[in-house]
Protein: Secreted protein
Amino acid sequence: MSIRFTAKARRGMVALTAAAGLVLGVAGCGGGGDDEKPDTSASATKDDGSEPSAQEGQAEEPLAELKGPQSLFLQITSAKRDSGGFVTVNGTLKNDGSETVVVPSNLSGNETEIIKNGSSLGGATLVDPKGKKRYYVLRDTDGRPLTTIGLPTLKAGESVPVFMQFPAPPASTTEVGFQLPGFPTATITISG
Structure:
């Protein structure tokens, strides 16, 4: 094989790889038709766990209360649409039982990219029944889910504040279904 042919083949493979990467990138970013990018302040921290966002505008009455596996109780306190094109859902995850509970790994979902970042609420989704669309937890540029990560073992009666960020459904959509593996679906109202 000549050196010229080998060099040409290598350039062709590089171009093909770059084109395939661009196609996958565009396909992975498709979804809402919105050209707005999320606010850069929404990225997760780079330590073992991320702190929940401030629960500003928290309603006195929770939006939903869900009983899940192993005596876990999730109380959703707010779902706020932000100007950056995303929705932040805040709440509290509590061990409502009398024994210590290890937070189940299925709450992280089943995507390899999210699972490799440890225990989280990365399996949560919002469902827009009118638009017939499902919204998954956002990820930062390193693939970490924009949700509470590093969930601890919860002692009896112990609770931890949690958050999840999703792409925002269209402004006309105010009610969505909230889903988390092992918990029943709840209808919540998005404010903002």
Q: What stands out?
A: The chain is about 15% helix and 25% strand. The first helix runs from residue 3 to 29. The CA atoms of residues 21 and 27 lie 10 Å apart.
